[in-house]
Amino acid sequence: MLAYIVRRLLYAIPILIGVNLITFALFFIVNTPDDMARMQLGIKRVTPEAIEKWKAERGYDKPLFINSAAPGLSTVTETIFFEKSARMFVGEFGRAEDGRDIAREIGARMGPSLAIALPTFILGLFVTVSLALILAFFRATAFDFWGVVLCVAAMSISGLFYIIGGQYLIAKVWKLVPISGFGDGLDAWRFLILPVFIGVLSGIGSSTRWYRTIFLEEVSKDYVRTARAKGLPETIVFFRHILRNALIPILTGVVVVIPLLFMGSLLTESFFGIPGLGSYTIDAIQAQDFAVVRSMVFIGSVLYIVGLILTDISYTLVDPRIRFS
Amino acid sequence: MMGFQIVVLWSDVLVWLLLASGIGVGVLIARSPPLLAAWRRVGASRAGMASATVLLAFLCVGLLDSLHYRVALDGKPGDKTQYAIEVLSVLDALVGPLRTENEKTYSAPFATHLYAKETVDRPGLGTVREFPRLKFGGAHLDDPATLADDVGVTAFRSVALVTLGWLALAGVVALRCGGWRAVWRGETAFAWNAVLATLAVILLVLVPLFALAGQYHVFGTDKVGQDVLYQIFKSVRTALIIGLVTTLVMLPVAVLLGIVAGYFRGWVDDLIQYLYTVLNSIPGVLLIAAAVLMMQVVIDSHPEWFATAAERADLRLLALCFILGITSWTGLCRLLRGETLKLRELEYIQAAQAFGVSNWRIILRHILPNLMHIVIIALVMDFSGLVLAEAVLSYVGIGVDPTMTSFGTMINNARMELGREPVVWWSLVAAFSAMFILVLAANLFADAVRDAFDPRVA
User: Fold this and answer.
1) Which parts pass through the membrane (chain A) (predicted)?
2) Are strands B118-122 and B88-89 parallel, antiparallel or unpaired?
């Protein structure tokens, strides 16, 4: 088992290097630092000196890969690639446009992001699996049919509508909760309730439908027929046999998104004014803060790869056949 | 007769190319019995055909909006003709007044007065603050109180017209398909009853809307006084291009790499798997954000590439399609690789190899046709997701050009309006409803196609 995990971890390294190279190419080769400087400075203030100063302040004035002017090992380290890209592997992300340390900012913003994303995830999973179970239990009835129709309709509604509509109705018209903002400690729950509710609501359509098909696949398997042939009542067949077996693909399937919960949700956080990583990313995109966007791309990929490894591990825990093959 | 110059935007080329290849594929399908049978099953599905009718209506709007031209400016005879900087489309010409009749600012649907009060000089009364009459909306009415009557009469006339036209059409269908009862009860091979019913609903909504749009702003006007109905029409093309061109862009890459990886295995397979795992590990929105930010820098540093603002917006739209395509081919590629791995072990492929048929010929003749159902299902399934994604991306500020009308830019411009007193709801509601109808139709159609092509899923 340990050897398996180590092998998976080693396999992640080339992928991370690939991600790093792609982001580097995207940010420094597609456009030269000069182009970025011109964009950031605006048309009015562009002078050759201003561009040089902008680049020097951010360390973009060095060569891309090989600095032949520097002595010894620093021919490789005194370059944009090493300083801006390779250093991300050790968690050094540099500074944002406003001069703050990106790594520290990320650390401070993970908490609020998780405070929204984790309850949304757990509650959403519980609600959608329960709904899917009910639909699958009443399969091939009018109830199931209209349930699926509702699911398709719900997944055809834009996520923006859930947020804008929900915020308007619940916070502005009914005044049940504050419209936006975030509080410290236990006081935060008032601000969390609405984003979590809307997050759960907007995921219901597609997830319920997807889990329903997983349940239905399970229903047609042989062990179900055996259980019925034994004379077990349908409720026992369903809630003891089918539910347990269907939870395996459902739970192993959602493992991959768990690490990504740290990243928060772009839309929810920006609409509700939550100081998490999602709103940080959106602000950076809108302010064209390339250093922050680059760091978020890298962190997102690391978290996704962690998710993949966790998925593999959870598969081997559930199904020993994979471990030994 | 005013002169005009035809403008061919790159996205127009792709749209018409797409239509041509769609027709071409249709001809090919008609020759292949299994595919034809699958499409017949789609044709028999009532939900599928009803949604197809809706999609077709959207497609017509999009196609009309994809024929562009520039009007010649009036100049002295003998001078070299100058053309207007504004690029128009056939749709603009058809809906004429909707585009030009702009109010000062917000006005509610069917309003005769502006949303905001203004200070007006009234002879005899001095200056008063009141809601001024609209310049165009309901301007033909002497007394705004007669609005309901006027709307009612126009609506009734157009409904009567629609009923006549629809009855004639239904009569033709009934004659050709063995009688009214057969059509009504759904006994025809093709789901005519669903098509006719949907058509009735579409006509009953669209024709009165059009009849009224000449005199009123049926969906109101936005902040700068532009008609919301017109914006909805213009958004359709953007949504269709995002939904269709993106898949078209990524399709050849995904199909080629997927089949090659599955068929040849070995180091080719490792390389392709590595490539898509790397691309897949970057969260989609972030990769798109990074790529779009970089594209903006490229576009801003080369203003000389674009003759008109429309061309710049158009190229940006296509670039967005490419970026979305690059980030979304991995899923299909993996599916195709897995399926090819299974197919290449089958007897008929091994027999072909034993006969010495070349690898590329085997791929083309024996593997590709057996993967078509996966490709078609992916194509229709991706569409709705891409339309929804466009709105989110435009909201974040990494979507289409801000000058290009799309559902996303409409929502983005209107997002503060719910905070006003009284509430300005019509832009948002119109954009969300139009998007909902398009996406719902696409989802239902995708389900019908999947059911017909993939017998495994019940």
Assistant:
1) 9-30, 114-138, 145-171, 191-211, 246-267, 296-318
2) unpaired
CA distance A61 to chain B (A): 18
Rounded to an integer, what distance in angstroms lies between the CA atom of residue B364 and that of residue B205? 47
Contact B440 A160 (CB under 8 A): no
Q: pLDDT digits over B313-322, tens only?
A: 888 899 899 9
Q: What residues 139-158 of chain A have any CB closer than 8 A to a CB of chain B? A: 152-153, 155-158
Tokens of B426: 């019509």
- DSSP letter for A101, please: B
Query: Does A157 contact B436 at a Cβ distance shorter than 8 Å?
Result: yes
Nearest-Cα residue of chain B relative to residue A16:
B278
Comparing alpha-carbon positions, the chain B residue that sits nearest to A179 is B419
Nearest by CB: A158 against B280, B293, B388: B388
Tokens, residue B51? 């949604």
- Name the band, by pLDDT with cuts 50, 70 and 90, for residue B455: low
Of chain B, the end-to-end C-alpha distance in Å amounts to: 59
In terms of Cβ atoms closer than 10 Å to its own Cβ (0-12, 13-18, 19+), residue A315 is middle
ipTM of the complex, rounded to two decimals: 0.89
Token pair recorded at residue B306: 């674009």
**So where are chain A's domains?**
2-90, 111-318
Q: What is the CATH number assigned to the segment(s) A111-318?
A: 1.10.3720.10
Q: Is the pLDDT of residue B1 over 50?
A: no
User: A-chain residues within 8 Å CB-CB of B443?
Assistant: 152, 155-156
Phi, psi dihedrals of residue B454, rounded to the nearest 5°: -115, 95
For the purposes of burial, counting CB atoms within 10 Å of the CB of A94, is it exposed (0-12), middle (13-18) or buried (19 or more)? middle
